[in-house]
Design a protein that fits this description.
Elements (H helix, E strand, L loop, with lengths): L2 H26 L17 E4 L5 E4 L6 E3 L2 H9 L4 E4 L2 H4 L10 E2 L8 H6 L4 E5 L3 H12 L3 E5 L4 H15 L2 H21 L7 E8 L2 E4 L5 H8 L3 E2 H4 L9 H7 L3 E6 L3 H10 L11 H4 L3 E3 L2 H4 L7 H12 L6
Parallel strand pairs: 3-4, 3-6, 4-5, 6-7, 8-10, 8-11, 11-12
Antiparallel strand pairs: 1-2, 8-9
Helix pairs in contact: 6-7, 7-14
């Protein structure tokens, strides 16, 4: 055999070996491989850590998703997913249009676990803050149904959940549209505000049986704080327990913002018949200057999700009208 032929044969053999190795390694690749979990030997579709530090492993792309929180159902839909089961707050609170066949499986605080199991979900969205959801997760585990806990209080939490959900659905363009674009909107609003002004505010959550001041961990208070306000309840923690008119008069806030829970008319009447009934209330600067503001529930009580930018803009126009004509 000639030297040239020998060299060609040797080169062909090397190329064949390399090709076989490439095929072997390509054939063994997976969408993701479980890290640090000896119990998972198979490939899986997606994994992440939920808000209770559980490792969530989805072996396949979810097709039958159930949400036990209305705002989470909306986030899943904003991520391009479909919902087969929801709690009734999607209608009573969020007024969402649902696909035909979507089943109502109880309330957010009292979901019906039998009805959940009956519709054969392959992924369930739960709230880390609701005890009944933690209990239901035990039944889901026994039934080999995947689930994840989320905790969404502020925009950053929503953005993180949307990121995960669009990873799962594969619609990352919706993360940009319903998440990053909203983030840009918020940033542009914050860039316009007068950081030297820092108006004092009192934020009240009113309900039919009373009213409570809320601190900066509240969703609406976080928005107000980002917009440069100073919440008098952060200076007087006693207001969180007792809505003391004496302390409110002492601080005399520039604005009083109110969000109602439940029946809005009954909540506002209870406030009017309660602390606002005192003659000293009408002498507050916020009341005299028409700065007592009832905020819309859909933007400041329920999680606004893709409308979070609207929430910031709504209050910014009240606080800084000259900047947002």
């Amino acid at each position: 055999m000639s030297t040239v032929l020998k060299n060609k044969t040797f080169s062909f053999s090397i190329l064949l070996i390399i090709s076989l190795l490439v095929v072997m390694f390509t054939g063994c690749s997976t969408p993701q491989e479980a890290e640090g979990d000896s119990d998972v030997d198979n490939t899986y579709y997606y994994t992440f850590t939920d808000s209770l530090d559980n490792t969530v492993i989805l072996k396949d792309k979810p097709q039958r998703v159930v949400s036990l929180v209305g705002s989470y159902a909306e986030t899943w839909i904003l991520a391009g997913g479909d919902i087969v089961g929801v709690t009734n707050d999607v209608i009573s609170e969020r007024k969402m249009d649902l696909q035909d066949g979507t089943q109502i499986i109880g309330t957010i605080k009292d979901p019906n676990v039998e009805e959940i199991i009956a519709i054969s979900p392959d992924f369930v969205l739960l709230s880390a803050d609701i005890e009944s959801h933690v209990e239901i997760s035990k039944t889901l585990s026994k039934s080999d149904i995947s689930y994840a806990f989320f905790k969404v209080e502020h925009f950053e939490d929503y953005l993180e959940m949307l990121d995960i959900c669009t990873d799962i659905t594969g619609n990352k363009e919706l993360y940009e549209k319903n998440g990053l674009d909203v983030n840009e909107q918020i940033d542009s609003i914050l860039a316009k505000i007068d950081r030297q002004k820092n108006p004092d505010i009192l934020f009240i959550r009113a309900f039919s049986s009373g009213a409570k001041a809320k601190n900066d961990d509240n969703m609406a208070c976080k928005i107000l704080n980002d917009l440069g306000t100073i919440n008098i309840a952060s200076k007087h923690k006693s207001l969180l327990e007792d809505l003391s008119l004496e302390v409110i008069i002492q601080e005399d806030p520039d604005y009083i913002f109110v969000v109602t829970m439940g029946d809005s008319e009954k909540a506002l009447k209870a406030l009017q018949d309660g602390i606002a009934k005192n003659p000293a209330w009408s002498n507050l600067s916020a009341v005299k200057n028409d700065r007592f503001v009832v905020l819309p529930k859909e933007l400041f009580h329920y999680k606004p999700n893709a409308r979070w930018g609207e929430s910031y803009e709504y209050v910014a126009k009240i606080l800084y009208p000259d900047k947002f004509e």
